[in-house]
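Page 37, continued from 36.
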């Protein structure tokens, strides 16, 4: 059954990206109107972000975000299952990639900080086509999705590491070998592995892993966003260097990281994953201190 579905998805991956992105727009609206918390969370996160000065701006950005969300879902088929060389060709341009090359030439490890913006899945594949790259991986519960994810991500010089202590060790080892690693900075940290820091208008439980990795290895860190181009033309990778080392204070570091993510979101607000439950409180974690003296 799973093999048959995998073959079907590989056939779908042959459909041109402009057609898939066109199909992604109604898919985004279908997802939005389905029962569940998806649409309410998207509206709340967008409304609380402070990015919209007027109700009309909010409504326009919400409509755009719904369409982009559908494109983000459907484009996983070609990104994961097209021949690797053809996936590379979908990256039409890069801005700032020379900063990553310069860090590598200086003998530094590279931390790619990839928020949930645009087609963030293509960033790792683009990097791994050129240099060794390690990213954390948590198997999804659905066997078919797990098979698709493994087929799509384990290509080029990419290695996947478990989301546990062994995975953290793998990231540290890769950085000490002056290789690249990938971090999603806007995920909710697991219990005990994060701190509360402001993010888009509300406290968010923010991972401390990124700061720990940089403090222990001296690696260079870069925010990278894969902008989804209009009309299915492909993607443009934008690199924003983290200009200062992250402080050792966990809250200060988390705040700086969140500010960096916010800055990138403001460049591409419609392509951010507004439906993600970024502000939830993990189990066994005390709520944030919202008193005026905090």
């Amino acid at each position: 059954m799973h093999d048959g579905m995998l073959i079907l998805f590989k056939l779908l991956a042959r459909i041109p990206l402009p057609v898939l992105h066109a199909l992604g727009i109604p898919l985004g609206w279908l997802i939005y109107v389905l029962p569940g918390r998806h649409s309410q969370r998207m509206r709340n996160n967008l409304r609380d972000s402070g990015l919209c000065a007027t109700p009309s701006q909010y409504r326009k950005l919400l409509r755009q975000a719904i369409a982009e969300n559908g494109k983000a879902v459907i484009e996983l088929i070609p990104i994961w299952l097209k021949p690797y060389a053809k996936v590379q060709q979908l990256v039409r341009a890069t801005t700032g990639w020379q900063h990553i090359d310069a860090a590598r030439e200086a003998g530094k490890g590279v931390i790619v900080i990839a928020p949930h913006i645009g087609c963030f899945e293509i960033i790792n594949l683009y990097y791994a086509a050129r240099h060794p790259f390690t990213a954390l991986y948590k198997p999804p519960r659905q066997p078919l999705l797990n098979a698709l994810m493994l087929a799509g991500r384990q290509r080029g010089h990419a290695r996947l590491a478990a989301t546990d202590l062994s995975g953290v060790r793998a990231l540290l080892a890769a950085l000490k070998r002056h290789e690249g690693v990938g971090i999603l900075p806007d995920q909710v940290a697991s219990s005990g592995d994060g701190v509360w820091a402001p993010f888009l208008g509300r406290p968010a439980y923010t991972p401390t892993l990124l700061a720990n990795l940089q403090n222990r290895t001296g690696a260079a860190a870069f925010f990278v966003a894969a902008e989804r181009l209009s009309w299915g033309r492909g993607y443009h990778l934008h690199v924003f260097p983290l200009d200062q080392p992250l402080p050792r204070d966990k809250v200060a570091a988390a705040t700086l990281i969140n500010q960096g993510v916010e800055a990138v979101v403001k460049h591409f607000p419609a392509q951010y994953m507004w439906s993600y439950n970024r502000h939830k409180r993990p189990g066994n974690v005390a709520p944030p201190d919202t008193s005026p003296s905090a």
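The chain has a mean pLDDT of 92. Flag for discussion at group meeting. The radius of gyration is 19 Å.
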